[in-house]
Amino acid sequence: MNYFLKVWLTTLLVSPFIIFISLSIIDNNNWLDIEQTGPLAFLFILAGIIFSLPSIGLFYLLGRKLQQHNINNKSIKITLSIYAVISIFVTFSLLGDAFTTVYNKDFVFPLSYSIIMAISIFLFNLNFNDHKTSYINKNE
């Protein structure tokens, strides 16, 4: 599977559950009840797919451009992480209070997505040639 797709899907699928765990701790509430959070998690994943498409497209283009300039993988991953955090916070700020005000936890949502995406960026092997040649050892 493509590196960028792995990072994106991991972020989309894991982040809602990190949000529910965080809100359970912060609110002392039962956000981990699957009957309540199951449909909400599906909504978060669906909204994440829709609202992240422009950012993930630029994420992909940035990664490919950095690779074309023979920049080492560690630098590419650091750059992609910085871009990811900025784009996630910008996306949430453009959405306004649609998600954050509902729970009055302004940073839980973008911070959860940012942390998971940054971890995913460093977790997966950076491979630009679809399984032909791995660049993971290049100056890393």
From TrEMBL:
The chain crosses the membrane at residues 7-26, 38-63, 75-95, 107-128. It comes from the Bacteria. Keywords: Membrane, Transmembrane, Transmembrane helix. This is DUF4293 family protein.
